[in-house]
Design goal:
globular; alpha/beta; 14 helices; about 400 residues; nine-stranded mixed sheet; two-stranded antiparallel sheet
C-alpha cells in the first residue's frame, strides 16, 4: 500500500499538466444523437447490418440526414469494412475517418477524436460507432479465431503468457485483481453488491440482456468461480448489437432537436510499461495508473472534481474493473471501493454516485463501452430508464488495465 502511494506521488504526478484556461473541445463540442440496435445473444444478422441500423438511428435522433454526415470514427477491432459501410449508408462524401486502438480502452477516445475533428473543422458531423456479434460470433477465448488472432497480433508480451494457457482477458484481469485484494485485505465474502445493483438497474431497462432476471447477493456468492477471484456474476455479458453517437460543434448543436450534451473534457492515457491487461511488470500491480491519469486530465480540462459528478458510467468488463476505478478517479480512497459499494445504497439511482445506471456491461450489454456513452447522454437528457434526478454532469470511462480513455459530459 505504501509503495502504491509513493509511486503515485513520485511517478504519476510528475507528468501532470497545469490547469487549462482554453480548450478547443471543452463545451465547444457536443453529442447530439444516439442510436442502438436490439441487444441480444443471437442477432441473426451480420455486423454491417447492425452498424447501419445503429448509425441511422443516431443520425435520425440528431435530426440530420445521412448526407450531413462527413466523418466516421471506429475501433480498429471493428470488423465492418469502412468503405462498405460508407456505401451501405449512402454517405455522399466522407471527409474524415480514423480508428482507435486498444479495444474497449478506446471507447471514449472515439468521441475524443470526433470532437477534435469537428472543433478543428476537419468535419461537421462525425458518427462514432461499435458493432459486434460477441455472443453468436467471435468470442474471447473460444477456439474459433480469437486465440489464433492473438498469436499473430503485434503484442509481443503475449509470448510470455500463451505457453502457459494464459489466453483470455478475464484471466489476465483476475491476476491484478487478486493482487489488489491481497494489498488491501479485501475478502471475497464482502463483494457482490456492485453486480447486484447493476442487475437491479437492468430490471427497469427493457433493452438490457438481463431484463427480467434479478440477482440476489446470495445467488451471486453461489455462482461458480470462473477465474479466481472472479465469479460468474462478476463478468460482463457476451452480446450481439451495435451503438452509435453523433458529435458536432456546440454552435451547430444549439439548433438540433435534443438538448445538447456538451463534452466538458476528453482524455486518453497509456503509461510506460502498460500492456493489454497484463501490466504485471510495472512497479505497482494493484492499481490502474492509466485510469488515474485519465481522471486527472479530465478534471484538469473541465475544472470539475469527483464531488461535481452526478452520475458515473465506468467500463466494467468485470465488477472489480469498475470498482477499482472508483478509487483511481477519487470517489473513494485506495482499497475502499468494496466498502463504497457495500449494501448498494451509495451506487443506486438516489445514492451518492449512481453507477452504470443502464446495467452496465455486466447486465445491459457489452458493446465495448459505447453503450455507456449512450446511457450518459440519456441521463443528461433526462430520458434514462433509471433516471438520476437533476443530473447535470456525467463521467464515462473506457477499459481498465490497458491504454484507456474517458469523458466528462454536461448539460
Amino acid at each position: 500500500m505504501q509503495m502504491l502511494e509513493e509511486y503515485r506521488t513520485k511517478s504519476y504526478r510528475q507528468h501532470l499538466r497545469p490547469p487549462v484556461e482554453e480548450n478547443l473541445i471543452r463545451d465547444k463540442t457536443a453529442i447530439v444523437g444516439i442510436g442502438q440496435t436490439e441487444y441480444s445473444r443471437d442477432s441473426g444478422r451480420d455486423e454491417l447490418d447492425l452498424a447501419c441500423e445503429a448509425i441511422k438511428k443516431a443520425v435520425a435522433d440528431a435530426g440530420l440526414k445521412m448526407s450531413d454526415i462527413d466523418g466516421l470514427e471506429a475501433l480498429t477491432l471493428d470488423r465492418v469494412s469502412m468503405p462498405t459501410l460508407i456505401g451501405s449508408l449512402g454517405i455522399e462524401n466522407l471527409r474524415f475517418t480514423s480508428e482507435v486502438s486498444f479495444g474497449g480502452g478506446g471507447a471514449c477516445a472515439l468521441v475524443m477524436h470526433a470532437a477534435a475533428a469537428v472543433a478543428s473543422g476537419a468535419a461537421d458531423y462525425v458518427v462514432c460507432y461499435r458493432a459486434l456479434n460477441e455472443a453468436s460470433g467471435h468470442r474471447y477465448g473460444r477456439g474459433d479465431g480469437y486465440a489464433e488472432y492473438l498469436k499473430a497480433a503485434p503484442t509481443l508480451h503475449y509470448g510470455y503468457y500463451f505457453p502457459y494457457g494464459f489466453l483470455t482477458p478475464l484471466s489476465w484481469a483476475a491476476m491484478y485483481t487478486k493482487r489488489w485484494m491481497h494489498e488491501y485485505g479485501i475478502k471475497l465474502e464482502d463483494t457482490g453488491w456492485y453486480s447486484v445493483v447493476l442487475r437491479e438497474y437492468a430490471q427497469n431497462n427493457p433493452e438490457a440482456i438481463f431484463y427480467g432476471k434479478p440477482l440476489t447477493i446470495e445467488e451471486f456468492h453461489e455462482s461458480p468461480m470462473i477465474s479466481a477471484p472472479l465469479r460468474l456474476f462478476d463478468c460482463c455479458v457476451d452480446t450481439d448489437g451495435a451503438a452509435a453517437v453523433v458529435v458536432t460543434t456546440a454552435d451547430r448543436a444549439k439548433d438540433m432537436p435534443h438538448t445538447p450534451v456538451y463534452i466538458a473534457a476528453a482524455a486518453q492515457s497509456s503509461p510506460i510499461e502498460t500492456e493489454i491487461q497484463t501490466s504485471y511488470n510495472r512497479p505497482v500491480v494493484a492499481g490502474l495508473p492509466e485510469t488515474w491519469y485519465v481522471g486527472q486530465e479530465l478534471y484538469r480540462q473541465s475544472g470539475l472534481g469527483p464531488a461535481d459528478i452526478d452520475v458515473a458510467q465506468l467500463y466494467d468488463p468485470f465488477s472489480y474493473g469498475a470498482m477499482i476505478q472508483l478509487e483511481e478517479l477519487g470517489f473513494c480512497g485506495p482499497g475502499e471501493c468494496v466498502d463504497f459499494c457495500q449494501g448498494g445504497d451509495r451506487i443506486r439511482v438516489d445514492g451518492e454516485l449512481p453507477l452504470n445506471t443502464s446495467g452496465g456491461l455486466l447486465s445491459e450489454a457489452y458493446i465495448h463501452g459505447v453503450n455507456l456513452i449512450t446511457e450518459a447522454v440519456r441521463q443528461l437528457r433526462g430520458t434514462a430508464h433509471n433516471q438520476v434526478t437533476d443530473a447535470e454532469t456525467a463521467i464515462v470511462t473506457a477499459g481498465p488495465g490497458l491504454p484507456t480513455s474517458g469523458l466528462i459530459l454536461r448539460k
